[in-house]
TrEMBL record:
<keyword id="KW-1133">Transmembrane helix</keyword>
<feature type="transmembrane region" description="Helical">
    <location>
        <begin position="234"/>
        <end position="258"/>
    </location>
</feature>
<keyword id="KW-0812">Transmembrane</keyword>
<feature type="transmembrane region" description="Helical">
    <location>
        <begin position="451"/>
        <end position="473"/>
    </location>
</feature>
<feature type="transmembrane region" description="Helical">
    <location>
        <begin position="593"/>
        <end position="616"/>
    </location>
</feature>
<feature type="domain" description="Nitric oxide reductase subunit B cytochrome c-like">
    <location>
        <begin position="37"/>
        <end position="221"/>
    </location>
</feature>
<feature type="transmembrane region" description="Helical">
    <location>
        <begin position="418"/>
        <end position="439"/>
    </location>
</feature>
<dbReference type="GO" id="GO:0016020">
    <property type="term" value="C:membrane"/>
</dbReference>
<feature type="transmembrane region" description="Helical">
    <location>
        <begin position="553"/>
        <end position="572"/>
    </location>
</feature>
<feature type="transmembrane region" description="Helical">
    <location>
        <begin position="636"/>
        <end position="655"/>
    </location>
</feature>
<dbReference type="Pfam" id="PF22085">
    <property type="entry name" value="NorB_cytochrome_c-like"/>
</dbReference>
<dbReference type="Pfam" id="PF00115">
    <property type="entry name" value="COX1"/>
</dbReference>
<feature type="transmembrane region" description="Helical">
    <location>
        <begin position="339"/>
        <end position="361"/>
    </location>
</feature>
<dbReference type="GO" id="GO:0004129">
    <property type="term" value="F:cytochrome-c oxidase activity"/>
</dbReference>
<dbReference type="InterPro" id="IPR054309">
    <property type="entry name" value="NorB_cytochrome_c-like"/>
</dbReference>
<feature type="transmembrane region" description="Helical">
    <location>
        <begin position="373"/>
        <end position="398"/>
    </location>
</feature>
<feature type="transmembrane region" description="Helical">
    <location>
        <begin position="723"/>
        <end position="744"/>
    </location>
</feature>
Length: 765
């Protein structure tokens, strides 16, 4: 540890405390998850649903795309309704109609105000009362509610079939005709939707963490039964703001008073040190990784435009009905999965480029063979998962094969379990390839400072292993438990360890280039890692406020996710540091555009992850905003703006060194870089954010069911806002094509100009 002892001890302490909290309250997620009754039955003994039929319904929902077609508990796609909120509201209104017809002989709307008030009061009492008997495993419903359930189930049976009466609704929801052909499976899926709504309406018993709130902490907002923010929600929302302000304040004080005087920048070398190290066979083999990055990037961008167009035409693409072959749920799945694949490939390529450099400029034995095997394994997993997605949503796969070969139904981990295992195996294999280059240097006796290398090693190990947390749930795992582990992948693995790897890898590269001092790079990387992990690890719980968890999960998630904003305060300084590196020495001009990507990362990290992230993070915000278009504002700005630009920056940097003759085309890169940024801003500020804010008002005033309903979303002015997004998408696509063409031309074309004399003339994939 040496002179960095305090930094290491702080990081270790942060990891011990935060992972202890994540584990302890994770156990509470298991213990306090809403029960799935063995039977849902009437007082007369008629069984409506069983635990098995509800879980069968969960698998049926997964097979049609799951979270890629509407959402459950607010998690998923935004065009179709949130099925939990929609089912709940439809069942409640059906109950009022049935009660009015049976008891008054007329529709509910024709009753006088006093009679309506009486029925609403009875409705609230019946639905919020917990009739689940743990001893018998039975949840009892009244005959009145049973009829309301039956009416609601009939609606869903027609919606997911090809019934002509609901064809227009399917078009508005971007659903293909006959989404789920089997009537039996449609009935089972209705049971699953019922259970998610039952948990959202039923108060948690006092002896298992109840405090007058439902299993989902009164989410979604539903005035008919008094679902409104809890007192705890408001308290921890205010506390999250206080914690954020305190964190920012202490960071500024620490930055000002505790930070040691910065060293003068080292004198940069006359020539680029990396260009004077002969390329190894494994480094020369990385060209195909870079091609895969831009091939998937281009595919993902066009799929994004295709998916966005479905929000205005539903089942058509400029008049051509393509939904039967490439429905919304499928192209949205491919859009998200291709993003994860190309971003991950960019990171993997950066790591594989560094491994031989760390190993003294030489490959470990059979390193090139390993790099080649890993590449083709990535291709197989990518292609196989895409084909599996297609056959699953087309309802071609047998139901028992869907989860394993087709579609898991969970956003960001949509790929079938077999392909997920293959991806995990590939990442572990990458870890092995990295370890073969890093460990000899790390363990070699020498007087050199190896602290930065040790931190890089830790981040590589965590990236290699933590993706495996996505294997801790199965096809029929309880939804609350699944959400816990899914966010280990989506939040902790991506937003935590990839962030540390990126920070450390850049620090290692810049210090190796002689542009920043090794000591400052090491200290900054260790301090950044502590800050990222302090908020990032327990901050995982901010995704679980309304996923069947109790108040302590909300308290931890709100408080620590607020701390995720704290390190973003200094990103302006980080952006400036990256910007000025290109002017330190003439040969840095060849790295201008990778550096510009890293500057963009700092900007979008501040805006997308910081501003737009905190906009939806406090419990009171997320209570009304979860499942609205405000979420993809944060997702696009954070996923592409941060990790996308990081992967592109890594790709361009690796390209610069594996093709030493290359000189980036100024016109291509200027267009590509600025149009990507402008397109991203346009799609957010001219479409997604305005739509989300209008939905926000509807969610507060009427309820989530209305904010996601076709009656609201098909209003002409919202349709116009969705059409407006086309302009931003086109700008973004042009930028993506320019950057991709630069990479392809760099790999296969003639260099634009001669490189410096010291550059190595090396070709080959």
């Amino acid at each position: 540890m040496g002179s960095y002892r305090k930094h290491w001890l702080a990081l270790i302490a942060v990891l011990i405390v935060t992972f202890s909290m994540l584990g302890y309250y994770g156990r509470e997620v298991y213990r306090q998850a809403p029960p799935i009754p063995d039977r849902v039955a009437t007082a007369g003994g008629e069984v409506l649903y069983t635990q098995e039929s509800i879980l069968d319904g969960q698998t049926a929902w997964q097979s049609v795309g799951g979270m890629q077609l509407g959402s459950i508990w607010g998690h998923g796609a935004y065009q179709a309704p949130d099925w939990t909120a929609d089912w709940l509201h439809r069942e409640l209104t059906a109950w009022l109609e049935v009660a009015a017809e049976r008891e008054q002989g007329k529709p509910f709307a024709q009753l006088d105000a006093a009679a309506q008030a009486v029925l609403r009061d009875r409705l609230k009492t019946e639905y919020r009362s917990n009739t689940f008997d743990a001893a018998t495993g039975t949840a009892t419903v009244s005959d009145l509610r049973a009829e309301a359930i039956a009416r609601t189930a009939r609606y869903y049976d027609e919606l997911f079939s090809d019934a002509p009466a609901l064809q227009k609704s399917r078009e508005h929801f971007a659903m293909k005709e006959n989404t789920l052909p089997s009537a039996e499976r449609r009935a089972q899926m209705a049971g699953f939707f019922f259970w998610t709504a039952w948990a959202a309406a039923t108060e948690r018993p006092a002896d298992v963490g109840g405090s007058g709130a439902t299993y989902t902490n009164n989410w979604p907002h539903e005035p008919l039964i008094g679902n409104q923010p809890t007192g705890e929600n408001l308290v921890w929302s205010i506390m999250s703001v206080v914690v954020m302000m305190a964190g920012v304040g202490f960071l500024v004080w620490g930055w000002s008073f505790l930070r040691k005087q910065e060293e003068d920048d080292p004198t940069p070398p006359v020539h680029d040190p990396l260009s004077r190290v002969p390329l190894t066979p494994s480094q020369r083999a990385l060209g195909k990784y870079l091609f895969l990055v831009v091939a998937l990037f281009t595919t993902q961008v066009f799929l994004g435009g295709f998916t966005a167009h479905y929000t205005v035409e539903g089942q058509q693409f400029y008049g051509v009905d393509v939904s039967q072959w490439f429905p919304y749920a499928l192209v949205r799945t491919w859009h998200i999965q291709s993003a994860l694949f190309w971003i991950a490939t960019g990171f993997l390529a950066a790591g594989l480029f560094l491994a031989p450099l760390i190993n003294g400029g030489k490959d470990p034995k059979y390193q090139k063979l390993g790099v080649d095997i890993l590449f083709w394994a990535l291709v197989v997993v990518c292609v196989g998962s895409f084909i599996g997605n297609y056959f699953a949503i087309a309802q071609v796969l047998p139901p028992e094969w869907n989860f394993w070969l087709g579609h898991q139904g969970y956003e960001y981990v949509d790929l079938g379990r077999l392909w997920q295992i293959g991806k995990f195996a590939g990442i572990v294999f990458w870890l092995v390839l990295m370890a073969r280059g890093i460990f000899p240097a790390l363990l070699a006796p020498s007087g050199q400072d190896k602290n930065l290398l040790a931190l890089l090693t830790c981040s590589v190990v965590c990236i290699g292993l933590f993706y495996g947390s996505g294997l801790f749930y199965g096809e029929r795992t309880h939804l609350s438990v699944m959400e816990y582990w899914r966010w280990w992948v989506v939040h902790l693995w991506v937003e935590g360890f990839f962030e540390v790897f990126a920070t450390t890898a850049l620090a290692f590269i810049f210090s190796t280039l002689g542009l920043v001092s090794y000591r400052m790079a090491t200290a900054a990387s260790l301090a950044s890692a502590s800050l990222f992990m302090l908020g990032g690890v327990p901050g995982t719980f901010h995704h679980l406020y309304f996923a069947g968890t109790t108040t302590p999960v909300m308290a931890v998630g709100a408080s620590f996710s607020a701390l995720e904003v704290v390190p973003l305060v200094v990103l302006g300084h980080e952006a400036w540091e990256h910007w000025r590196l290109q002017h330190r020495t003439p040969w840095m001009a060849h790295l201008k555009w990778p550096l510009m990507c890293f500057v963009a990362v700092a900007f979008w990290n501040m805006l997308g992850a910081g501003v737009f992230g905190f906009m939806i993070n406090p419990p009171i915000s997320l209570y009304y905003l979860q499942g609205l278009n405000t979420t993809p504002v944060h997702a696009h700005a954070a996923l592409f703006g941060v990790y996308g630009f990081l992967a592109l920056g890594f790709t361009l940097m690796v390209l610069r060194y594996v093709r030493p003759q290359l000189v980036f085309s100024e016109s291509l890169m200027k267009t590509g870089f600025w149009w990507l940024n402008a397109g991203l801003a346009l799609m957010m500020f001219t479409s997604l954010l305005p739509i989300g804010l209008f939905q926000f008002h509807a969610s507060v005033s009427e309820g989530l069911w209305y904010a996601r309903s076709e009656a609201f979303l098909q209003q002409p002015f919202l349709q116009t806002l969705r059409w407006v997004r086309t302009f931003g998408d086109v700008v973004f696509i042009v930028g993506a094509l320019c950057v991709s063409w630069q990479v392809v031309r760099g790999l296969f074309g003639t260099p634009a100009a001669a490189a410096p004399a010291e550059a190595l003339l090396v070709k080959g994939m």
